[in-house]
Amino acid sequence: MVFEYSVTFQSVLTLIGLITVVFLLFFLIISSILIVLLVYALKTGIVPFPRFLKAGILFFETFMIWFIRVAGINDTDFWRFMAGLQNNLNKQAFSEVPIDKRAVFLPQCLRSAKCPAHLEPEGLKCRSCGLCTVGQAHRVLQGLGYRVFIVPGSSFIGRMIKKYRIKGVIGVGCLIEIKDGLEMADKAGYVAMGVVSDKDGCVETSVNWESVYEIAMLGLDPASFPDSILEFLPASEEPRA
After folding, report:
1. 3-state helix/strand/coil string of 138-168
2. Residue 110 and residue 48 share a domain
3. How many C-alpha atoms does 191 have within 13 Å on its Cβ side?
4. CA angle 80, 82, 87 (to 5 degrees)
5. Residue 53: domain span
6. Residue 9's pLDDT is what?
7. In terms of Cα–Cα distance, which of 180, 170, 173 is closest to 217?
8. Cβ atoms < 10 Å from Cβ of 65
9. Distances (CA, A) of 139 to 82, 117, 124, 148, 213
10. CA–CA separation, 61 vs 10, rounded Å?
11. Which segments in the chain show pLDDT lower than 50?
12. Would you say 101 and 111 are in contact if contact means Cβ atoms under 8 Å apart?
């Protein structure tokens, strides 16, 4: 009886050992592949197997963050890459969202410190005073057909999305805001595209508006663009000579 118990216990230990070895081999193989793909993507800007890469990085997030730090890769560069990867994955779905179900959310920190805008129920009301670039961007994006909001606080975004049944969002903000926003959109069931601001801070930040416009034009008919906004659109995308 004791012998049978000993044999059974030994068999269980052997099975546990085999499972552990298989798991470790699986972890090493998958993590090695992810590291190679990530380093290649960061160096070349070309992202092979984006869905696999994103899923793998999220699954092995703790290990991947440890690796990039050991490898001397800046955390900011990594999370910018992740935001770009999410945009790449969402690009087609965003292109298919009707323009009347799209919105752009701009952070109030983009405006001038002397901004005369007043807070209204649907955010800060831009006066196009010329003190910053937000007024011009506001006109261009509205000309494309977007609802444009200047955000006074984080809870505001959810209210506007619910009120207008928005399905596609372009968000502008600092890296952590874009990271959190893209994750929130995934859980909430709408398509989000993020543009990271060029300058962080709480006052008079900046963003590459051309990057915003490039995303904003996805899936739209160039023939529908008003003449008044063509000069502000990226040259490679201008629909008319």
Report:
1. HHHHHHHCCEEEEECCHHHHHHHHHHHCCCE
2. no
3. 20
4. 95
5. 2-73
6. 65
7. 170
8. 15
9. 30, 15, 15, 9, 12
10. 35
11. 2-3, 236-241
12. no
Looking up tokens 């399905």 gives: 167
Domain match, 114 and 65 both = no
Distance (Å, whole) CA 25 – CA 19: 10
Same domain membership, residue 228 and residue 127: yes
Clarify whether residues 169 and 65 are in a common domain: no
Q: Measure the CA–CA gap between 166 and 92, rounded to whole angstroms.
A: 17
Does any domain span residue 78?
A: no
Strand residues in 34-122 grouped as ranges (E)? 102-107, 118-120
Domain closes at, from 73, 106, 122: 73
| φ/ψ (deg, to 5) at 221 | -85, 115
The model's pTM is 0.79
Q: How many CB atoms lie within 10 A of CB 4?
A: 8
189 lies in a domain?
yes
Domain for residue 193, yes or no? yes
CA–CA gap between residue 90 and residue 40 (Å, rounded): 21
Residues in the chain: 241
Say whether both 67 and 103 belong to one domain.
no
User: Are residues 104 and 26 part of one domain?
Assistant: no
Return all residues near 174 (Cβ < 8 A) that are at least 6 apart: 107, 196, 197, 200, 205
- Please tell me the total count of domains within the chain: 2
- pLDDT at residue 139, as a whole number: 93
